[in-house]
Write the C-alpha cells for this entry.
Amino acid sequence: MGKSSNSALVILAFFAIYVIWGSTYLLNKIAVLELEPFMLAGCRFTVAGLCIFLLAKIMGISLSITKKQLWNTIIAGVLFLSIGNGFVVWALRYVDTGFAALEISAQPLIILILMRILQGKKIQPMSMVGVLLGILGIYLLVSQKQIIAQEESILGMVTIFFCLVCWAYASLFVAKADLPTNYFVNTGYQMFFAGIILGLMSLAFGEEWSSPLGWSTEVQVSMLLLVFLGSIVAFTSFNYLLKAVSPEKVATSTYVNPIVALLLGWYFLDEQITLQSIVAAVILLTGVYFINTKKTLAIFERFKR
C-alpha cells in the first residue's frame, strides 16, 4: 500500500513539474496581454509567498531566519524572480511562448559558461559537446526570418537572454550562499520579497494598476493557476522528487517543459511551430542533455519559475 501510494505521488509530482511548469508560459502570456507585466509578476509572487508562509505555519515549520539568510534570500529572489521572471513576463508580449521556453532551456549552457569565466572550472569533453550543440541550437532558433524581421521580437529575445544570465549567476550564488535550510521557507521569503520588489519596479516604470475584480475571467483563472499551481504545487512537487528519485530524472523537466510550452502555445494561441524551430529544439535540448552531468544537476535544477 505504501509503495503504490508513493508511486502515485511520484507520478503526480512529475506531472506537476512537466505540465504545470510547462504551462506557466501560456498562463503568463494570457495574463500579460491584458495586465501590466511587473504588476502581474509582483501580485503572483507576493501572494504565493504569503500562502507559503501560511502553509509553513499550519505545518509547524519555523519561519525564523538569520539576518544574513534574510539578505541572501532577498538577493536570490531579486535575481531569480524580480529580474529573471519579471522581465521574461515582459518579453512574452513580444515573443511566442514556445520560443521563450526553448531559449530558457539553454540555462544549463549559460551556467556552465559562467562557471568557466567566474570560477575557472574546466568544461568536461561531454559538456563541451553540449555547449557547441547548445550554441548551434540557439543560433538556429533566433536566426529565423520571422524573428529577425521584427524589432520587438529581437528586443524580447535579448531580454530573455539577459534573464538567463541573471538566473545563471543567481544559481552560482545560491550554491554557496547561507540560505534557510528548509526549501519551503527559503522559497517563501524569495517569492515574497521578489513580489514586493516587482511591485516597486511596476510603480517606477509607471505601470497602470488594476483591480483583480476588473480582470477578465480568463486572466483571473490564469493568475490563480500561476499562484497556486505554478508557484506552490509545482515547487513542492519538485522538492519532493529531489528526495524521492534521482536528480537526473528530475532534470528531465528541462527537456519536457519547452515541448509542453510549444504545444500549448500552438493549440491555445495559434502560435506557429516552424521546421527550423523543431530542428533547433532537438539540437538545443540534446546539448542540454550532454551538459546535465550528475555533478551539475543540483545547481541547474535547484530553482524554477
